Amino acid sequence: MKLSTKGRYGLKAMFDLAVNYGEGPIPLKSIADRQNISEHYLEQLMMILRKAGLVKSVRGAQGGYMLARKPAEITVGDVLRVLEGPIGLVDCVLEQDPLECDKAENCIMRIVWEKIRDSMVAAMDSITLQDMCDEAEKRKAESQNYMYYI
Amino acid sequence: MKLSTKGRYGLKAMFDLAVNYGEGPIPLKSIADRQNISEHYLEQLMMILRKAGLVKSVRGAQGGYMLARKPAEITVGDVLRVLEGPIGLVDCVLEQDPLECDKAENCIMRIVWEKIRDSMVAAMDSITLQDMCDEAEKRKAESQNYMYYI
DNA sequence: TTAATTCCTATCGTTTTAGTTGGTTTTCTG
DNA sequence: CAGAAAACCAACTAAAACGATAGGAATTAA
Asked: Which of A26, A77, B14, B36 has the most CB atoms around it within 10 Å of its CB?
């Protein structure tokens, strides 16, 4: 039931971009260094995020990545859907293209999986990258020795 | 983010036992046949469930498995915790023995994972095997050609 | 021109998954 | 008592997923 590193690293990177939103393209290397992630591996994740339209890239020297939309317009669910696939603990209740099942109409198990999926979706979609930035700012203000743990 | 077959098969089997609750020990073979699961594989899952105290077994001919408690006293969360491990999408926010992380105090990611975990836990713990049986009965009553799809 | 940086494809070792195999032990029934 | 039914148990295995790594090609600012 665990998330893969795609989802974990990817959301970390997106949060990093959100914190640095409006400061031009952020090079992958700096994100990878801050987050302690293999640069090459993170590259693959950014590719996925770019193709999904969540980040924009600028090639060449002084290039890098930036969010394609404002942090307030990107939810945790948006990021996780792209990197982990449609939300759902079992294939027959995925948000998109659920795997067909001959018993679908009257399957009691299905009700359970749908309820869990809906609660996950609600939680994921309720948190934006902006919310995360706000929380970071709040904690920073509350504590002298707070550091950006992103 | 998917459940493994342990969780899926295991909950199916537990629901099967709940439907047949009070009818003495149910042989594994009959569960495996109804649910279309490898008998030997299901055996391993039942072993885990037995050691966790969710089912009781009776050995020898006419033996089998039965729920250790009433269906109303076993939640979906109980079953999934035993078969899939503590609930949580990432190791640092598992319900039990979360993986320590040096940044724990001020980690913004953590807030996200906790919120998702809590919503999953709430959904899982809110559904009992009895609820599932009730729903099956309800559907049965509503439709002539309803069949027990368990 | 050169250094920085994204883009792209392929490969690879390890771990997990989802079983299978081949038994042993217990207990009911005829 | 014999035989069948059933749980119990340990070891093995093929395939898939995971988490990278390798090696370059293309682009662009300075």
From this structure: B14
